[in-house]
Amino acid sequence: MLIRILISISDAQLHRQIRRLLQQSDAVLVDIPLASDPLTQATANTCDLMVMQIDTLDEKMHQLALEMAELPDNPWLILITDSEDPFERTEFLASGGLAVLPMAVGAEQIVAVLEEMIDKRKTFISSTINHRNLLNEPRLNDFYFASPSMREFLRFAFKIAASEANLLLLGETGVGKEHLARAIHRSGSRATAPFVPVNCGSLSENLLESDLFGHEKGSFTGANHARRGAFELAHKGTIFLDEIADLPYQLQVRLLRAIQDKEIQRVGAERAIPVDVRIMAATNRDLRHEVDSNRFRQDLYYRLNVISLTVPPLRERREDIPALVSRFVEFYRSSMRAEIIGIRDEALRALVQYDWPGNVRELANIIERSMLICEDDEIDLCDFPDEIRTLAKTYDSEEISSNPEAPALADDTVDVCELLWKDARRIGLDKLERTYFTRLLETTRGRIREAARRAGVDPRSINDKMRRYNLHKEDFKHRNQPPNSDA
Ligand SMILES: Nc1ncnc2c1ncn2[C@@H]1O[C@H](COP(=O)(O)OP(=O)(O)OP(=O)(O)O)[C@@H](O)[C@H]1O
Ligand SMILES: [Mg+2]
Known about the structure:
Elements lengths: L2 E6 L3 H10 L5 E5 L6 H8 L3 E6 L4 H12 L5 E6 L4 H9 L4 E4 L4 H23 L18 H14 L5 E4 L6 H10 L8 E5 L5 H9 L16 H4 L4 E5 L6 H13 L1 E2 L8 E2 L3 E6 L3 H6 L5 H7 L2 E4 L9 H17 L5 E2 L1 H9 L5 H15 L4 E2 L6 H4 L31 H23 L4 H8 L3 H10 L4 H5 L10
The site of adenosine-5'-triphosphate has 19 residues, from α7, α13 and α15.
């Protein structure tokens, strides 16, 4: 994150010292003319901090603090002054001013405070860019998988997390390219700096240019304020260029220059700003083919494609589906405050069979939707759309647990106290269900409608339970019959 500081300091020695001492920080210092209007300057430049030396702290400064708080970037105002009126100082702070530093403390002290403020500002901006969200901010260790192919894939991903090289992520829609990019970023040396995603396909060329590089006030009609772009925001961190194949040709040229020169120029700016970003780009198109068709610059392709990773589609790693399902059920359970504890085996089998053209995103959507519909405590086939439900008819008899690490459901040798509560609960429920429905079918002699009536459930549920626990109607017909009965 590059922090921009506007300074207006009349004391030449203090000015020199501040400039020298702040040279090492991740800050761009911009001098504003002493006689100029500070609010106009803040609006024109976009800044994080404004540091002003003033003679008297008065009403004008309270007003300035209030107005700065209204600007889109909400810059922080710091005053350096000999003025000592405690009433004015309190008013200034109450109006939203950040600090008043006495000249007498000297340049080094003042710079120490400014450095502290720069760090606070970075945290403030990061928190507004990165909404923390369990699914949105993964680490490589959080990846849920069971397939050997993903294990191999992630081993490689760990290696490249430590590298600084640009990365190209390929793979079908929804396979998790952005998810992986975030995880690699969060697991590497830039983890504490921002991850800034930009979708290269969704905006007009002008908006995209400003999104990437920022713009100065007045640089085009409607540019009422200066604005920083993704490169400035991602300084010391990672910029994620999604749908890179859609980047217009002119912007490909600008991007290439930014990567080569490690500096960018805002739209309408005269000066370049040095930036240090790692670039990760993603596409579900064949970028090589775009290069061959002259739609994508070859030189940019090589710059981006220092390392490339192709995330396999979900249908080629079906073993990952149960683990991902558990992950999504857990995630949506807490966000929906739902009571659902898992998924029935038949339902899970159907998910494993399905081909997932929309990959992991489609799977997450289906789980969320089914949890909204589900009236039971486990997701069932009837909670799925038709195209998945029909697959249940064709499933093979292979057993697949919703959690590959979970113990077998009917395993009597397991000490429940050594399990997670969710697994223990599942085992307990399973046993109770098996006993309940076996007894119920015994007393109703396998008559399903009667069993459903007594249990207060739908006959379909009785059928499901019978399938689940391998109970057969015929086995109950003659049970509990009085001896010599011919019924
Ligand atoms: N291994 C995983 N574990 C948990 N969630 C995942 C995993 N992979 C993907 N997801 C989730 O699936 C959804 C789709 O992933 P993502 O947006 O990264 O896909 P994408 O490949 O960038 O798709 P597109 O090409 O359409 O942009 C996201 O909500 C993401 O969090
Ligand atoms: Mg994406």
